[in-house]
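Retry 2 of 3 after timeout on previous attempt. Resubmitting structure tokens to design endpoint.
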């Protein structure tokens, strides 16, 4: 089973998403959370730290693991604190859960996004 670590980076009720390249054979053009595959020698958190630096140039300062999502791949989402401005060649932005509802996203992300829109969710009271 492919294990994937994802970063949910929240700032003032909005969340960072980037758009996968249209040329990517996997989920082309869909708006995703940054992250990627966990290498055999890594924990999901170690993979997330590596991917955040590689993909958007941010240092992971704190992370809270959320429940694992089982699907075609196993997703390990984390609520992440990573200060600074993300740098990526992909299209990106900060989106509210309501705005995310209008974006094409990976099917496995729908339930995550739904939970982000819960009034209980947020920095003070994470998911
Ligand atoms: N990064 C990311 N991947 C997601 C999300 N939702 C989702 O189902 N996935 C899936 C798509 C892929 O099957 C897998 C991640 O693969 P990837 O191609 O982005 O991983 P990677 O950066 O390690 O890529 P590579 O080394 O193989 O090029 O997880 C998401 O929000 N973000």
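Retry 2 succeeded. Sequence:
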């Amino acid at each position: 089973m492919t294990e994937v670590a994802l970063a949910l980076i929240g700032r003032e009720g909005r969340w960072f998403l980037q758009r996968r390249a249209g040329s990517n054979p996997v989920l082309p053009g869909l708006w995703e959370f940054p992250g990627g595959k966990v290498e055999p020698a890594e924990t999901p958190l170690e993979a997330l730290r590596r991917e955040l630096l590689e993909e958007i140039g941010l240092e992971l300062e704190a992370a809270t693991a959320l429940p694992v999502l089982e699907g075609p791949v196993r997703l390990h989402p984390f609520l992440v604190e990573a200060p600074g401005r993300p740098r990526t060649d992909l299209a990106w932005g900060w989106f509210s859960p309501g705005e995310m509802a209008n974006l094409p996203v990976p099917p496995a992300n729908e339930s995550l996004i739904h939970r982000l829109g819960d009034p209980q969710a947020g920095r003070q009271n994470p998911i």
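Attempt log closed. The chain has a mean pLDDT of 93.
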